[in-house]
Design brief:
Blueprint (H helix, E strand, L loop, with lengths): L18 H15 L3 E8 L19 E2 L2 E6 L4 E6 L7 H13 L1 E2 L2 E3 L2 E3 L5 E2 L1 E3 L4 E3 L8 H9 L11 E13 L4 E5 L8 E8 L4 E3 L2 E5 L2 E5 L7 E8 L3 E4 L2 E16 L12 E2 L4 H10 L9 E6 L9 H5 L7 H12 L4 E7 L21 E4 L6 E4 L7 H7 L2 E4 L1 E3 L9 E10 L2 E18 L2 H4 L10
Parallel strand pairs: 1-2, 21-26, 24-27
Antiparallel strand pairs: 1-17, 1-20, 3-4, 3-10, 5-9, 6-7, 8-12, 9-11, 11-19, 12-18, 13-17, 13-19, 14-19, 15-16, 15-18, 21-28, 22-28, 23-25, 27-28
Helix pairs in contact: 1-4, 3-6
């Protein structure tokens, strides 16, 4: 047998009865709420956050953003506010913000198909895009591309690709001591409208946390900790969300509608603008890892990709992992963020599928094991001209290793790519061509419990 490919342990692990239910619970979480919300941060050029060149988690530096300029027409002159601003000691900055507040209007919300105002439900100010301009662009900041791969719906455009269009809705200002927005849902305004993006501008404030809820889960985005960076969150329209009361300062945000459009991302493994620790899945995986009943001796955890990729060709293989999308991208990046070794490999169809019930004894020793290929690429071709050739012979020739993998879900066999092309001879018949398919799968090596018990059990998901 060939050695294991990089990223996979050569051993076959044994599992106790507790691992299966825990893995099932994690799989259920992924299916229901893996990526209903995501968020991230862009440090402002020249801010103190970039002195060391790293963020607080020790990862590589996040992308730098320019100071945000907002211009609007005041009563007698054109006004401008540049953020971050020194509102405590710079009189000009404080006056510019005060002028912005005077020119803004009470914020509205949808009620029975109408725009309504009620400070008991929403207390904030707003400006429509027609009343101001800004130099901030979520596209150049990398935010839209990040959202496209983390949250994009499964529906595809006619050409097989789809992306995200962000439409600026309003500038909202939540001012202390009581700016807030009670729990609500966003109403889709078109067939392509699937989500909301909120970008918090760098302005000193406390409180005003954004809480996003979905199917019994919640994620809290607290942007009061830094006034020197752009922070953002995106979520689906069917997620309930609210803004808690701002207790001091001013919370300024740009709000965008997220709509489906044509496009294609290329970000997994290269996306610095999104903070994958803010994905709901991140905390769930951490909770799973610190559970002593989950893979106590370690093992392999697998995810058969939800989306189709051309992994059975050299060109398609070269695009992985950067073209992963949706839950596939989220799982890959969450595992990486937790320093878990994760690799992307082809996994052959179960060999037992090629045997009748009475012949399964020929592969009895392979039951419960997966044939994990060493690498992606064009189909592996085989020619065998012996009548004694069996399907096991074709599997044995393929460069792979056997592993016991705990799968987080089952996928239909037809969703794979051709991995092996072979010629199967028969006694009195001409040789017959056949193929064996493979899945594109993410496989993560889980360390024994005693090695992962000290994993920091913190996170943003509540």
């Amino acid at each position: 047998m060939s050695p294991s490919p990089p990223g996979l342990d050569a051993s076959t692990d044994e599992y106790d009865s507790s691992t299966g239910p825990i893995a099932d619970a994690l799989a259920k979480f992924i299916a229901e709420s893996c990526s209903y919300a995501c968020g991230g941060e862009n440090s402002i050029q020249g801010s103190e956050l970039n002195v060391t060149g790293q963020n607080q988690e020790g990862f590589k530096p996040k992308p730098l953003a320019s100071p945000v300029t907002i211009r609007w027409d005041a009563a007698t002159t054109n006004s401008k506010l540049v953020l971050p601003a020194d509102l405590g000691s710079n009189t000009a900055d404080a006056e510019a913000l005060a002028e912005l507040l005077r020119c803004a209007q009470p914020a509205t919300f949808g009620c029975n198909g109408m725009e309504a105002t009620d400070e008991r439900y929403r207390k904030a100010l707003e400006m429509k895009p027609s009343a101001f301009s800004t130099n901030f662009c979520p596209y150049t900041a990398g935010i839209v591309d990040a959202i496209a791969q983390a949250l994009l719906p499964n529906a595809t455009s006619p050409n097989g690709h789809h992306g995200v269009r962000a439409e600026l809705s309003k500038l909202h200002v939540y001012t202390s001591p009581s700016g807030m927005f009670k729990a609500h849902f966003d109403t889709p305004q078109s067939a392509s409208h699937f989500g909301t993006l909120v970008v918090c501008l760098p302005c000193v404030h406390e409180g005003g946390q954004l809480i996003v809820r979905h199917r019994g889960h919640s994620t809290t985005f607290d942007w009061s900790k830094s006034s020197n960076s752009l922070q953002w969150a995106a979520f689906y329209t069917d997620c309930e969300h609210e803004v808690l009361e701002v207790t001091s300062g001013h919370r300024l945000v740009f709000t965008y509608k997220l709509c489906v459009s044509r496009g294609l991302g290329d970000l997994a493994g290269n996306c610095d603008v999104i903070n994958f620790q803010q994905l709901p899945l991140y905390q769930k995986v951490k909770e799973t890892l610190v559970n002593s009943e989950f893979m106590p001796k370690g093992g392999h955890l697998g995810w058969k990709c939800s989306h189709a990729y051309a992994h059975g060709t050299n060109a398609g293989a070269a695009a992985l992992p950067t073209v992963l999308k949706g839950s596939d991208m989220a799982i890959y990046e969450v595992f990486r963020s937790l320093d878990l070794p994760v690799c992307i490999r082809p996994v052959l169809q179960d060999i037992s599928n090629f045997y009748s019930a009475g012949d399964l004894g020929e592969v009895e020793d392979l039951q419960g094991l997966d044939h994990v290929g060493h690498d992606f690429g064009d189909p592996y071709t085989m020619d065998r001209y012996s009548n004694e050739t069996t399907m096991r012979d074709y599997y044995d020739q393929y460069p792979h290793s056997l592993h016991k993998v705990t799968w987080l879900q089952n996928r239909a066999e037809a969703e794979g790519n051709v991995e092996i092309a072979y010629v199967a001879p028969y006694a009195d018949l001409a040789s017959e061509a056949g193929v064996i398919y493979s899945y594109c799968a993410l496989i993560c090596r889980i360390s024994p419990y005693e090695e992962r018990v000290n994993l920091d059990h913190t996170g943003t998901t509540e």
